[in-house]
Write a structure and sequence with these properties.
Blueprint lengths: L2 E7 L1 H4 L6 H12 L4 E7 L2 H13 L4 H23 L11 H8 L4 E4 L10 H12 L3 E4 L5 E2 L11 E2 L1 E3 H11 L11 H10 L3 E4 L2 H8 L7 E4 L1
Parallel strand pairs: 1-2, 1-4, 2-3, 4-8, 7-9
Antiparallel strand pairs: 5-6, 8-9
Length: about 230
C-alpha cells in the first residue's frame, strides 16, 4: 500500500460561516496531486458543532449528550467531504479505527469524524490516535502558522517554535489546557497520544505548507518529533 498520512481538518476550515467551496476545491486539488499516497482525513465540528453543544448546555443536557452531538456534526462533515471527493473516497463514514483501516484498502482517501465517545476527547485526539494506530505521520491543518509560545492572536511578541520534541510539546499542552478559553494548535489528548506513540507530527497553517510537507521539502510550520 502507498504511504498513509492522517490529516486533521478543522470544521471551521470546512464551514467558517458558509461552506468554503474555494478552500475545499484547493484541498481536493492538493490531495489529488499526491496519487502516490493515501489519506485519512479526520473532520472537526467547528462553529457548527459549538452551536449545537451550546444549545444543549443551555437546555441542561449532560456533558455526554453535548459530546455526542458534537461527534454527530463531525460525522456529518465527514460524509459531506466524502461525497464531495467522489469515487476515490469512502461511501460510508467509519465509526472505529478498525473500519478506517479496512476502508483504506479500497479507497485512496478516507474521511471520518469523531469515533467512539471518550471523555474529554476531540477530533484532534481521534486523528492522533489514528496516526498511532496506522503507524503513520500526522498533519494538523490549523488557522495559524504553527506553534507559538503564547497565543499569537493576543500577543504580538509571541515566539514561533519551528521544531519541538514530543516531551516538551506535551509539557506546553498540559499547561495551556487548563487556561479557560485558551486557543492551542493541538489539545492535551492529542499531545498525549503523539507522545505515547512517538508519532511524527506537523502543524501547518496553509495548503502550501502542507504540500511541502507531503513532498518532503522545507515547510513553514512546526515539526514535533524526537
Amino acid at each position: 500500500m502507498e504511504k498513509v498520512w492522517v490529516i486533521s481538518l478543522g470544521g471551521s476550515r470546512i464551514v467558517p460561516n458558509d461552506v468554503d467551496d474555494k478552500f475545499l476545491l484547493e484541498f481536493k486539488k492538493l490531495l489529488d496531486s499526491h496519487k502516490d499516497k493515501r489519506f485519512v482525513v479526520v473532520c472537526g465540528g467547528g462553529s457548527s458543532a459549538r452551536r449545537y453543544i451550546s444549545a444543549f448546555r443551555k437546555l441542561g443536557k449532560s456533558l455526554r449528550d453535548q459530546s455526542e452531538e458534537g461527534i454527530a456534526i463531525t460525522r456529518f462533515h465527514a460524509g459531506f467531504m466524502a461525497r464531495f471527493f467522489g469515487k476515490e473516497a469512502n461511501k460510508e463514514v467509519p465509526l472505529n479505527m478498525k473500519k478506517v483501516k479496512s476502508l483504506l484498502l479500497k479507497n485512496r482517501v478516507v474521511f471520518c469524524g469523531g469515533l467512539r465517545w471518550r471523555d474529554n476527547n476531540t477530533s484532534d485526539g481521534n486523528a492522533a490516535q489514528l496516526a498511532g494506530y496506522l503507524e503513520c505521520p500526522f498533519i494538523n491543518l490549523t488557522n495559524v502558522r504553527g506553534l507559538y509560545d503564547r497565543d499569537p492572536t493576543k500577543y504580538k511578541n509571541a515566539r514561533f517554535i519551528g521544531k519541538i520534541s514530543w516531551k516538551e510539546f506535551l509539557k506546553i499542552a498540559r499547561k495551556i489546557s487548563f487556561e479557560a478559553g485558551q486557543h492551542f494548535v493541538l489539545d492535551r489528548v492529542a499531545a498525549e497520544e503523539i507522545a505515547k506513540d512517538k508519532t511524527v507530527t506537523y502543524i501547518v497553517g496553509s495548503l502550501g505548507a502542507m504540500d511541502s510537507v507531503l513532498k518532503g521539502k522545507r515547510f513553514v510550520g512546526t515539526l514535533i518529533s524526537g
